Amino acid sequence: KRAVTAPSRRQRGFTLIELVVALTIVAVIAAVALPSYRKRVLKANRQNGIDCVIEGQKRIENYYSRFNKSINSLDDAKVSTSCFVPEGKTTLYTLNYTAPASGSTAYALTATGVGRQAQDGAIVLIYNPADGSMQKQHITPKNVTVDGWQFNPGQ
Fold first, then answer.
1. Which residues pair with 147 in a beta bridge?
2. What was the pLDDT predicted at 3?
3. Cα 17 from chain centroid?
4. Is the Cα dihedral 39, 42, 47, 50 positive or negative?
5. Cα–Cα distance between 112 and 64 in angstroms, integer?
6. What is the mean pLDDT of residues 93-103?
7. What is the edge-to-edge ordering of all strands in the sheet holding 145-147?
8. Predicted confidence band at 11 (pLDDT cuts at 50, 70, 90)?
9. DSSP H helical ranges for 68-128
10. Exposure string over 33-59, b if 16+ CB within 10 A, otherwise e
11. CA 62, CA 77: separation in Å to the nearest integer?
12. Is 99 in contact with 107 (CB distance < 8 Å)?
């Protein structure tokens, strides 16, 4: 008969050093990937805010064409002040209306990020129905106004 020997230390499992090295590699990969993932989520959710602003502008213009007068609040045109994630009820942006100044027809709609989306700043649409001009702006979290809706988080 052959003697049964205990398995050697190497055959029983991983050493502490091997586990620490593996966890360190996972931690480095997570540290690199997480900021990139968060930027992608902000960018994906931004389209929801843009859609909300555009939908609000369409409803305001529809109200004006039906009643031949400007709205006093978003409720007049049945515009929601909250922009939700399509598949849930998580509010990403709040929508605000700025009425035209005296003697002007231009109004502004501002979608301001809520929660984590606040890192993306605000989406602004200034529309003048008199001449059809539309100005798109982004106000960064650091309160810098940038023309257009192409933004860089962190500005």
1. 137
2. 63
3. 42
4. negative
5. 24
6. 89
7. 82-84, 91-98, 107-113, 122-128, 133-139, 145-147
8. low
9. none
10. eeeeeeeeebeebbebbbebbeebbeb
11. 8
12. yes
DSSP H helical segments within 1-153, as ranges?
Answer: 16-67
Whole-angstrom distance, CA of residue 59 vs CA of residue 87: 22
Specify the pTM. Answer: 0.73
- Tell me the per-residue pLDDT of 33-75, one tens digit each, with 9 for 90 and over: 998 898 888 888 888 889 889 999 999 999 988 998 888 889 9
pLDDT in tens, 111-146: 998 988 888 889 999 998 888 888 898 888 888 888
Residue 49, Cα to own-chain centre: how many angstroms?
A: 7
The answer for residues whose C-beta is within 8 angstroms of residue 105's C-beta and 6 or more apart is 70, 128, 129, 130
